[in-house]
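If you are new to this repository, start here. Below is one unmodified record pulled from the training split, so you can see the exact layout before writing a loader.
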Amino acid sequence: MKVYKTLLAITLLIAGMVACSEMNNKSDSGEATSSKEKQYAIFDDNNNLLRPKDYRSWIFMGTSSTPKSEDPNVIFPDFQNVYIDPVSFAYWKKHGEWREGTIIVKELLRQGDAVSSVGHGFFQGAHFEVAAQVKDSKRFPTMHNGWNYFGFADFEKLKLNEASIPLGNQCASCHNNTAIDGDVFYQYYPVILAAKGYGDGNPENENTRPGLVADYKYVSAVKMNPNCK
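And here is the target side for that same chain:
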């Protein structure tokens, strides 16, 4: 009787361990599948990029604007709000380089008010264009570092297209020669500069600020490319 009870206890213990192992394997498999399926840059069979969704909930890189009142020859006189997918931002923060599959979305806005309660300035108006750049060396082996570029606004039909063809060197000529690392203009986005290779934690939690000096003077990390004008 004692032997029977002992064998029964051992059998139940083994059964429990097997069941637990199966549950863990299913969980791990599910997590791996979920992680693998999470793609932010999605293409069709013709290498056209589908218009990114929910990008305003991604990591906000920053914004920029050069109004024509400041430079009549400016290429992009509108506001540009720039976002990066959260997985690529985490990779950038850990490794200090762009991972394959990185997608950066640029959303353009018209100029809005020029006067506020604190004085004259430049404020954002209405959204009108969505553009993106994606690093995919296998898909675009002839592009510099695998980066390609996309735009979704149809200015004749006054709507955004669901997909964009790769614009290639139409955009790359400026990016290759002017942007830091040859491709991304993150010299204009302190959030990205501060996060490069930072590792664990977040730089915004530091109690220091590079600009917190009385004689602060900005020095650009790169020289302007005259071919972009």
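Two things worth knowing about this chain: The chain has two domains: 1-38, 49-228. Residues 49-228 form a domain with the Chalcone isomerase fold (CATH 3.50.70.20).
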